[in-house]
Amino acid sequence: YEQVVFPLLLWYWDVEVLLSPADLTPLLAPCPSILAIRNPNPYFGAPDLDRTKFRRVKFRLQRYLTWLSARKADAVFFVSEFSKRVTNRYLGLPERKTSVIHHGIDPTLFDDPVQPEDENLVEILKSEPYILCVSTINEHKNCETLLRGYAKLPEQIRAEFRLVIAGRNSA
Q1: Rounded distance, CA 47 to CA 44, Å?
Q2: 70-116 pLDDT per residue, tens
Q3: pLDDT for res 114
Q4: How far apart (Å, rounded) are the C-alpha atoms in residues 85 and 91?
Q5: DSSP reduced 3-state for 31
Q6: pLDDT of 26-75, one tens digit each?
């Protein structure tokens, strides 16, 4: 559908520009397209060594289709400089074609916070100011850079704001 029917609909609707928000764009789109590459998972480490055969095939196919889409797109954006650097090693896009647009935050999503089960964490969250990172702990999430950056903060800031990483370790 995305590669055959959708381009026909784009032509029929006389679409001027297409935003493709999820790593792939129709290769036959009759209009300029902007591609968001938001999933750097297939570009990390040596996925061919430590994954099941299904995931190896899936990631190879995903890398190839994203590469084709990035070639087709008029502009490509990533969600972070880190993601851009890691992914673009494979894609090889010129700098002028790429940019970084960080995710926004919808404050209405945080009106009714969920209480964590860990009592120590609850005490920290209730009593102290903190810096919160909510994420699974995977290589592509780049928690290592977060920790290095936090360690470089002046002692006064680290004493005032504890770093809390809330997420499961998927390693």
Answers
A1: 7
A2: 999 999 999 989 889 989 999 999 999 999 998 877 666 655 555 55
A3: 56
A4: 10
A5: coil
A6: 999 999 999 999 888 777 654 444 557 777 788 888 889 999 999 999 99
Cβ neighbours for 80, distance < 8 A, ≥ 6 positions apart: 100, 102, 142
Q: Smallest Cα–Cα separation from 66: which of 19, 23, 3, 95?
A: 23
Residue 98's region, left for phi above 0, alpha for psi from -120 to 50, else beta, is: beta
Spatial CA neighbour of 37 closest among 97, 91, 79: 79
What are the backbone dihedrals phi and psi of residue 115, each rounded to the nearest 5 degrees, phi first? -85, 130
**What's the rounded Cα separation, in Å, for the pair 52 and 43?**
16
Using a cut of 0.85, tell me whether the model's pTM lies above it.
no
The single residue listed with the structure tokens 């209009």 is 31
Contact 49, 34 (CB under 8 A): no
Write out the two tokens for 145.
């850079």
Cα(59)–Cα(39) distance, rounded to whole angstroms?
Answer: 11
Distance CA 159, CA 131 (A): 12
